[in-house]
Amino acid sequence: MGKHFTNTARDEGEEIYYTDDYLTFISSHLRYIINHPSTKNVIVDPTYVHKNLHDFDGLLMDMGVRYEDFALMRIVNNMPNPTDLTEAFEGMILPDNELIDQLKSLFRTTMI
Known about the structure:
Layout: H1 20-28, H2 30-35, E1 40-43, H3 46-51, H4 56-62, H5 70-76, E2 91-94, H6 97-110
Antiparallel strand pairs: 1-2
């Protein structure tokens, strides 16, 4: 009997969260996101950084961040290119999922 492979494709979410309009929207709300009371500054274990050196997206994946939120996380953490992750990276700004969902909802209503 052959091996069975499970579907390992990640849920990439809605296409709307990959548009220039969405990225501009997030950039315009950057100060709000960073200063929001539910947003946390977390220290990242150096072993995670080393494991994902030059792969910020890999680090986000290891931290359980939703794939559709990777672009937002790059903006919030001033990491426009995921390959810019170096050993010097120590901390991350981590917005609460509820806050991100509220911003997504607000964005969708502005697109009507």
